[in-house]
Amino acid sequence: MSAVLDNPGHVGGHDHGDHAHPTPTGWRRWLYATNHKDIGTLYLLFSFTMLMVGGVLALLIRAELFQPGLQLVNPELFNQLTTMHGLIMVFGAIMPAFVGFANWMIPLQIGASDMAFARMNNFSFWLLVPAAIMLVAGFFMPGGAPAAGWTLYAPLSLQMGMSMDSSIFALHIMGASSIMGAINVIVTILNMRAPGMTLMKMPMFCWTWLITAYLLIAVMPVFAGAITMTLTDRHFGTSFFNPAGGGDPVMYQHIFWFFGHPEVYIMILPAFGIISQVVPAFARKKLFGYASMVYAVAAIAILSFIVWAHHMFTTGMPVTGQLFFMYATMLISVPTAVKIFNWVATMWRGSMTFETPMLFAIGFIFVFAIGGFTGLIPAIAPIDTQIQDTYYIVAHFHYVLVAGSLFAMFAGAYYWLPKWTGFMYSERRGQIHFWWSMISFNITFFPMHFLGLAGMPRRYADYPMQFADFNMIVSIGAFGFGFAQVYFFLFVVLPAMRGRGVPAPQRPWDGAEGLEWEVPSPAPFHTFENPPKLDETATRVIA
């Protein structure tokens, strides 16, 4: 029953049939990459680069807010920083990073030789590079970068300079890349699973990505429509969102958030999948309630389409609409709570050890639960009226997106890094990164709840004196958190990529299950060219 792999042609190696190719070398390997592992690596490096760019913008924001008054930037540049920070982090960092995880792990987890459309996979990655350049280049255009907030609300977006047009074009290209990636994931999972790997035996990471891919295909065209209407309002005389011509700026919000709320789940469902892989491995138990997890993820995806206007309680919505979106928002918290219950139940009475992936997974569960609870509070319409567009909202969504998406990515990176690079990371450095990140994250974002409840609005470059102490604490925490991520890259990722450290065994974690642990470390350039024969659990290869 155990993982044998005595026959290298069965899983790795290059001596097995006509369609195996030698590993390409040099720049051609990366420019013309069609191997899912190389493309996954490109996505991950690209997204980390964008994380650093977006992080620098965030630190400029926090440097300005370190004390009252205007220190470094004027209010116009401040709004450009907040806008570009949001766009770069969402479309340049979080989404491409999860696509990188999908490219690396989905074929390995389902026993496929590669992604279904290898050349489209290459194209979807390389679209991101010019799009990212166009997005960041807005700072250097006449009038500077867009300053309408990352949501690009009309009428502000109709009044911006030419950088708004380049940003719209960049977001179109990134959206096209996302749709191609989603198509690739769906076709790969539905058509290329190894014999015996039924849908209900797939790893949870594959399930969460399958559902995420359907969400992407459903909502990215909606976003494309919203920004295209903005473009035609700006240049072609239409009046979709211009009240002077009979348009309605609130309509933009409806269209944007019909995309934007499922987008929130696009950025968190793959994180749920990663945590569902890591927790059972280090608890040495099967995932509790696998089927209920699958149904919960599907329920979240479906319900995400009926909650969009909870972002809009202050736009003059009738009471009936407020009640509908309020209760729908509370309803969507139920399947999310199911997942947290299942992870805790998986750990219950397990033989737990606390290597870095597990630390980040437990840290994720803790801080994501806080983010979930803080989201239930603005779901109540009369309370939202008080805290709308304050720092309470900033605190809430950073608990979901930083402590949620980013911490889950760190858990996944530490978990799979030995399989990716062939070398074990330094456990001590990993634990330093975890505690440094966890402490500085909470120093940064927890006080924002109090600032928001006290009435400090977001996107303002200046503030009254009574908010000074908390803002100083937040800014100090933000710089600490930023440097923690530089530490992660320089002292954890780079040594592993350069082949420094202890060579990783094929199965570095004794509780880990799944086909990715059936191939050598590092994973060979070609894997599973012949479909593997699986045991009855679909988690091991039978030689």
TrEMBL record:
Transmembrane residue ranges: 42-63, 83-104, 125-148, 168-192, 204-231, 251-275, 287-311, 323-345, 357-381, 393-417, 433-452, 472-497
Q: What class of enzyme is it?
A: translocase
Q: Which domain of life is it from?
A: Bacteria
The biological pathway it contributes to is:
Energy metabolism; oxidative phosphorylation
Sequence ranges assigned to domain Cytochrome oxidase subunit I profile in this UniProt record: 21-535
Q: Which GO terms describe its molecular function?
A: cytochrome-c oxidase activity; heme binding; metal ion binding
One biological-process term from Gene Ontology? respiratory electron transport chain
- How does the UniProt record describe the way this protein sits in the membrane? Multi-pass membrane protein
* PROSITE patterns assigned to the protein according to its UniProt record, in alphabetical order: COX1, COX1_CUB
Offer one Pfam family short name for this entry.
COX1
Q: Which GO terms describe its cellular component?
A: plasma membrane; respiratory chain complex IV
Q: Cite the entry's keywords alphabetically.
A: Cell membrane, Copper, Electron transport, Heme, Iron, Membrane, Metal-binding, Respiratory chain, Translocase, Transmembrane, Transmembrane helix, Transport
The question of whether Membrane is a record keyword is answered with yes
Task: Show the SUPFAM superfamilies listed in the entry.
Answer: Cytochrome c oxidase subunit I-like
Positions of the UniProt region annotated as Disordered: 1-20
Q: Tell me what reaction this enzyme catalyses.
A: 4 Fe(II)-[cytochrome c] + O2 + 8 H(+)(in) = 4 Fe(III)-[cytochrome c] + 2 H2O + 4 H(+)(out)
Instruction: List the InterPro entries hit by this protein, alphabetically.
Output: Cyt_c_oxase-like_su1_dom, Cyt_c_oxase-like_su1_sf, Cyt_C_Oxase_1, Cyt_c_Oxase_su1_BS, Cyt_c_oxase_su1_dom, Cyt_c_oxidase_su1_bac
Regarding protein family, the annotation reads: Belongs to the heme-copper respiratory oxidase family.
What is the designated name of this protein? Cytochrome c oxidase subunit 1
**Which gene name belongs to this protein?**
ctaD
